[in-house]
Amino acid sequence: MSSAVKAGAPRRRPPLPAGRILVEGVSCALGAGLLWGLVFVVPLLLPDYPPAMLSLGRYLAFGVIALLLAWSDRPRLQALQRQDWQMACELALVGNLFYYLFLSAAIQLADAPLPTMLIGTLPIVIAIVANFSAEALPWRRLLPSLLVIATGIALVNSHEMALLDDRRSTQDYLLGTLFALAAVFAWTWYPLRNSRWLQQRPALASGTWAIAQGLATLPLALLGMAAAGGYFHWQGGFDFPLGASSGRYIGLMLMLGFCASWLGTLLWNRASRLLPAALVGQLIVFESLAAFAYAFILRGSLPGSSALIGIALLVAGVILGVRAFRGH
């Protein structure tokens, strides 16, 4: 039993057969990707809200939801040790608050296509970084799926980049690019660190770890809200705390807090426990696919031929990646 969980914690169930592990792990990653794709749409639905308020509002909602769920999971949460809570705080700060702050700023500065393209490289970046671990898959088995995914990303984003307009300045595009790259760095670190922690603690339940991250996020979000309140009180520029569209803001933040943060984190934790980090990294492509789908729905348009071919290649790359890890 892991040293991070006290004696008496729920016993780990027997491992599943390899085929069922792959199916369950990929299904969980797919569910997380569908939920995480929502985060690309909300900044466009609240264009007048500062990125800090989008990030803090989402994770304040996540923290409150986790606080409500914590009561039913008290025994497992009480079994966590100090190093677990320290890691939960690190993951919450970098993978939650910083990531969405950077992403929201990038989308509002440069519109959705450019940040989506850069975030779309995450499956490649994470898989490559993860494959330098001690349990690396031979590159000859990993590279085919990465090349197919990279080609799909290029085709999909060639369509998206064509939608860029001249309403934004070069400075906005430059700053948006820098914020998007910062988001890529934050979300390269988060899933790899989270996956390694879960692999080291097999008795730590995925749902418990999702709640723990939400609880760790809550005080950070409260401190951030207090700082934001002081800033907007003195500088102006935003009707703190709820803004001009208070009902829409509250509803969207609760949706992100529950769906994208709590449920998405739970599903991703489960996928991270079942699958190798290099494969899980590739499966982040589901988030990009969901983001593109939601963007097309929001625009009321259909993807072009190059985008459709790119989407097909992304799906094919995922299938190749799963097959490469089968039996590994």
Describe this entry's structure for a reader:
The protein has one domain. The protein is mainly alpha-helical. It has helices at about 20-35, 40-45, 50-70, 75-80, 80-110, 115-120, 120-130, 140-160, 170-200, 205-235, 245-275, 275-280, 285-300, 305-325. It is globular, with a radius of gyration of 20 Å. The protein contains 14 helices and no strands. Helix 1 packs antiparallel against helix 11, helix 6 packs antiparallel against helix 8 and helix 10 packs antiparallel against helix 11.
What is the ordering of alpha helices and beta strands? HHHHHHHHHHHHHH
Whole-angstrom Rg = 20 Å
Low-confidence stretches: 1-17
- Overall geometric form: globular
- The pLDDT mean sits at 82
How widely separated are the two ends? Answer: 24 Å
* Largest beta-sheet details: none
Strand content: under 5%
Please tally the β strands and state the result.
Answer: 0
Total domains, how many?
A: 1
**Separate helix tally:** 14
Helix/strand structural class: mainly alpha
Helix proportion range: over 70%
The oligomeric status of these chains comes to single chain
